[in-house]
Automatic annotation (TrEMBL):
The lineage of its organism: Bacteria, Pseudomonadati, Pseudomonadota, Gammaproteobacteria, Pseudomonadales. It comes from Aquipseudomonas alcaligenes (Pseudomonas alcaligenes). This is Outer membrane lipoprotein-sorting protein. Keywords: Lipoprotein. InterPro entries: TP_0789-like (IPR033399), UCP028205 (IPR011220). Residues 52-226 form the Uncharacterized protein TP-0789 domain. The keyword Lipoprotein applies. It comes from the Bacteria. Pfam families: LolA_like (PF17131). The keyword Membrane does not apply.
Amino acid sequence: MDIIRRADRIRAPAEPFRYALTLVEMKGDHEVARQSFDVAMRFYKAEAGQEGDARALVRFVDPPSEKGKSLLSIFDKLWYYEPKLRRPIPISRQQRLVGQVSNGDVVATDFDLSYISKLAATEECDGRKCYRLELQRRWPYVTYPKIIYWVDAENYRPFKAEFLATNDKLIKRAWYRDYKPALGVERPHEIYIEDSLKKEQYTRMLYSDVRLEAVPEAYFQKEYLLRLR
């Protein structure tokens, strides 16, 4: 669907890229926890006879006690590594990392690649016309079974998303905020994620230093994680 593809390209470029990510867990006005990461991403679009793919290398940067830890995502698989381990171990994308953010959230998701989408309605979002899309995951290993996604009808900017479980129970809500120029496009530099039950508990995903950078293919291998000690 053209709507979802255009919104994807606002959230993230199609070319290999890299960015800094800071997660800030909040309770009311009080900061509970903060972690920073260096993330390298690469998308591979589906071609004749082959599925698409997405790969990401996530390096823990701050606090200093977390340095040396890393995550490696290769489409349907996610590995975790830290220096005290002999080798990387597989982990769940749904597992909480910081606050309302799961392991799978740290990696930029290409919704068109991971979900089947349909236009459900056109409605108002803060005084602007929005498309409301329903997204169903293509494969069981995708982090969220279903997403309700609002996209600005004029500029295709993501506005809001609701992440649902298999029984349609709301897991959390996210708002895309702080649009600023990055790589020639106005992109969201903050995703505000609200707990579905405790609205005073929320997590801010803050993006910075977004740049095109094709890190070597070798970086997206489990063996490479052993070099990040």
